[in-house]
Predict the 3D structure of the following.
Amino acid sequence: MQVIKYVFQPHGDDRGQLVALEEFKDIPFRIKRVYYMYDTGEDVTRGYHAHKSLQQILICIHGSCKIRLDNGKEKKVVPLEKPYEGLYVSNNMWREMFDFSSDAVLLVLASELYDESDYIRSYDDFLDYVKKISLTTTEEV
Ligand code: T46
């Protein structure tokens, strides 16, 4: 599994740091939605789902957390601990966010508006879905 982590270029000067993100330039999709989570309990795990279409960039702009990515065949844990790093999370990828520091703020840039029908919330359904997709793709080749 290929993990895509963007390292953004901060505009730093003696006042501090500023990171600017533009769609199709720094972010590989049109940004239709932004949300963030904070005050996450340190023993809490969020996520436990995949998306059929949604692409996202996750940036831990304060504190730290970890993201578990799972494509149905392979799992990887990616730490996010720098405000200038963004993790690309594609569609068809199971994700779990955990190990939040008490001061963590996890910002998410999303390619689509909120749509509950895009979620796959059962892990068994996710495994069936990715299996079906890979069969369809193989047949098309
Ligand atoms: C994802 C990970 C990284 C909304 O009303 N609008 C929104 O845009 C979002 C994201 C959530 N909500 C509501 C739906 C739930 O009642 O906020 C509540 C918490 O959402 P959820 O339980 O889906 O949160 P997470 O942390 O499990 O997952 C979220 C995103 O939903 C998901 O797309 O990839 O963060």
About this structure: Residues 4-140 form a domain with the Jelly Rolls fold (CATH 2.60.120.10). The pocket of dTDP-4-keto-6-deoxyglucose is lined by residues 33, 35, 37, 46-47, 56, 95, 97, 108, 114 (CB under 6 Å). The chain is about 15% helix and 35% strand.
